[in-house]
Amino acid sequence: MSGFFVTGIGTDIGKTVVSAVLVESLKAHYWKPVQSGGLDFSDSDFIKEYTNQGLNVHHEAYVLQQPMAPFFAANLEYKKIEIQHIKLPKYNNTIIVEGAGGLMVPLTDHLLVSDLIKHLNLPVILVSKNYLGSINHALLSVEYLKQKNIPIVGIIFNGDANPDSEVFILKYTGLKLLGRIPKADIISKGFIIKQAEEIRKNILPLLSSDSDLNSSTDLPIDYESF
Asked: Is 32 marked active-site?
């Protein structure tokens, strides 16, 4: 069995869309340990709605009302997130775990999302989105993961393409390019399934025990193929 932790270079990067594509591509299980806000249509609801893997979606460990960092959202409800009680659910084959916000979002007064990743002992798939400052955020995220000795299997670019920015990030970090998800005016199950089919050839090798983490790939950035 294997699993991957999906995190982003910041908030509103498109982690849930990418997670849906990965879940559909690998026919994987999905789990969002901590959900803050958006309870009318949570990230778990999104996976159920836009993939064919609804039966493989697991309940959150913590569900918080306010759309803010989990530590502060929990405080408002007089709750405390106890990381030792967050354990991977039972799953077959592969699980995609989605984080809350970025790597350094606080879960408690002394624990961050990165501590949860270490606790769950999962390699990371990093999601990036092109915007002013995204190179800085991407490079900082990668350096931080390396300092924490958290393995990174690769990066996925989400949204509008920026070839110059993406090439720089790939060359500087040496990360594997796992694919890119184009911006969709309207998200649909058909869109998720199509992207899952496109990215599958790059994701399946990650399931091999021989997969070399934190190494670059010769995969070209072919913007017409992604």
From this structure: yes
